[in-house]
Amino acid sequence: MKLTVNREVRDLPDDRVDPQMPLLWALRDVLELTGTKYGCGIAACGACTVHVDGQARRSCVTPLGSVQAGQAIRTIEGLADAAQPHPLQRAWVLHQVPQCGYCQSGMLMAAAALLQANRRPSDADIDAAVTNLCRCGSYPRVREAIKTAAAALRGESAPAAGVQP
C-alpha cells in the first residue's frame, strides 16, 4: 500500500499493515512518524489528530483502508520545518501554550485545519473546531495563540502575548 504523507509517497509493506489497522499505528509504528500521539483510542481526546486532504481527522479510529489512494495525509512533522515554523507554532511559543505537551501536536493540527478554512475564527469557531482535550487546561492560551496565528496568516501584525487581538 502507498500513502502520501507530508508530501512524500511512502510505501507500507503489505506484511506489516492491514486495511483495518488504524492510521495512527501505520504512521507511528510502520512509518515511524511519532509526533502523532495515542491518547484514548476512541476519538475523544484528539491527541491523534492529523489532516487527510486538509480535514482534521482522528487517526486512532480511521482505518487505513478508508484512506483513498492519492489523498494527502499531513502529520505534525509536515506542518512546517524548523527553519520556518508554522505561524501556529510560533504563536504556541509566544503564548506559552504547552505545559506537559502531550496533546499539543493534535491541538496544532486541529487548529491548522481551522485556520486553513477560516482566517478570522471567533471563540465559538475555535471551540467548535478544536475539541481536543488537555489535562493541563491551557485552553485560554490555545485560543489566544490561534487568534495570533490567524492575524499572522492574514498578514497583520500579531498582538503581544496576553493582549486581546
SSE topology:
Elements: E1 2-5, E2 8-11, H1 23-30, E3 49-52, E4 55-58, E5 72-74, H2 87-94, H3 104-117, H4 123-129, H5 139-153
Helix pairs in contact: 2-5
Short description:
The chain has 165 residues and is of the alpha+beta class.
Overview of the structural elements:
It is a single chain. The protein is α+β, with helices and mostly antiparallel strands. It has two domains: 2-78, Ubiquitin-like (UB roll); 87-153, [2Fe-2S]-binding domain (DNA polymerase, domain 1). Helices cover 32% and strands 12% of the residues. The chain is built from five helices and five strands, in the order E-E-H-E-E-E-H-H-H-H. It has helices at 23-30, 87-94, 104-117, 123-129, 139-153; strands at residues 2-5, 8-11, 49-52, 55-58, 72-74. A five-stranded mixed beta sheet has the order 2-1-5-3-4, covered by helices on one side. Helix 2 (87-94) crosses helix 5. 39% of the residues are buried.
Please name the defining characteristics of this protein.
165 residues, alpha+beta, DNA polymerase, domain 1, 2 domains, 5 strands, globular
Helix/strand order: EEHEEEHHHH
> How many helical stretches?
5
The CATH superfamily label of the largest domain reads: Beta-grasp domain
Q: Based on the coordinates given, report the CATH architecture of the largest domain.
A: Roll
* Order of strands, widest sheet: 2-1-5-3-4
Provide the residue-averaged pLDDT. 93
What fraction strand?
5-15%
- Number of structurally distinct domains: 2
Q: Segments where pLDDT lies below 50 for 5+ residues?
A: none
Q: Using only CA atoms, what is the Rg?
A: 16 Å
Distance between the termini: 46 Å
Q: Based on helices, strands and strand pairing, what is the structural class?
A: alpha+beta
CATH secondary-structure class of the largest domain: Alpha Beta
Describe the global form. Answer: globular
